[in-house]
Amino acid sequence: MQTGRLRERSAGCVSLAVNALQEGTTLTEENGKKPQRRMRPCPICSKLSTPENYPFCSDRCAKIDLNRWFSEGYSIPVVETDDLDDEDYPDRG
């Protein structure tokens, strides 16, 4: 019995999505609600994020993060090694 209910439920969700696509609306417009995200800490200042600026708490923190990307603040440090010559390998010399 559980599988029958699950099929009916998933078929209903699919038909809602198909109807929304045909009408040119989204599912969130259909019921008038935006999907709710979990409020998480802002990666810049650790305040709770807002739905308008997710994952940040404000436009200011979003711009700070963007500036860090542009100024290459988020870069992976590279450790350079000395190039090995063919002389270092006894098989190749």
From TrEMBL:
The record's GO molecular-function terms, alphabetically, read: DNA topoisomerase type II (double strand cut, ATP-hydrolyzing) inhibitor activity; zinc ion binding
Instruction: Output one GO BP term.
Output: regulation of DNA-templated transcription
Cofactor note as given: Binds 1 zinc ion.
Q: Which cofactors, by name?
A: Zn(2+)
Specify the superkingdom.
Bacteria
- What InterPro entries would the database entry show? DNA_gyrase_inhibitor_YacG, Znf_NHR/GATA
* Alphabetical UniProt keywords: Metal-binding, Zinc
Binding-site list for Zn(2+): 42, 45, 57, 61
Its assembly, as annotated, is: Interacts with GyrB.
- Matching HAMAP family: DNA_gyrase_inhibitor_YacG
- Give the function comment from the record: Inhibits all the catalytic activities of DNA gyrase by preventing its interaction with DNA. Acts by binding directly to the C-terminal domain of GyrB, which probably disrupts DNA binding by the gyrase.
Q: Which NCBIfam families match?
A: PRK01343.1
Name listed for the protein in its UniProt record: DNA gyrase inhibitor YacG
Organism whose genome encodes this protein: Roseibium alexandrii (strain DSM 17067 / NCIMB 14079 / DFL-11)
Q: Which gene encodes it?
A: yacG
